[in-house]
Amino acid sequence: MYRWPTHSGLRKPDYWHQTGSTGDSYDNAMAESINGLYKAEVIHRKSWKNRAEVELATLTWVDWYNNRRLLERLGHTPPAEAEKAYYASIGNDDLAA
C-alpha cells in the first residue's frame, strides 16, 4: 500500500489507497496488456534524451494504435476506418467523426 497525496480532499484525511501487487491485474487486464505492448514497442527500444521525446513518441504510437494499425479480426482494416464503416452501415454517419 502507498499513500496518494492528491487524496487529501477525501472525507478521511488519513485515507490509504490500496493497489494490487505486481501481476495482479485481473480487474484491468486489457489496460495492462496495452501498457505492456506500449512499453515493449516504444519505451524499452531506446534510450530517451528527455521527457519531450518520450511524449512525442507516445503520441505517435497512440495515434498509430487507435487509427492506423491493421487488425486481422477487422479484415486487416485500421480501427478508425472500421468504426467509420460500421456507423455508415447503420445509418449514423454523424457518429463516425
TrEMBL record:
It holds the Pfam family rve_3. One of its GO terms (biological process) is DNA integration. Residues 19-79 form the Integrase catalytic domain. This is IS629, transposase orfB, truncation.
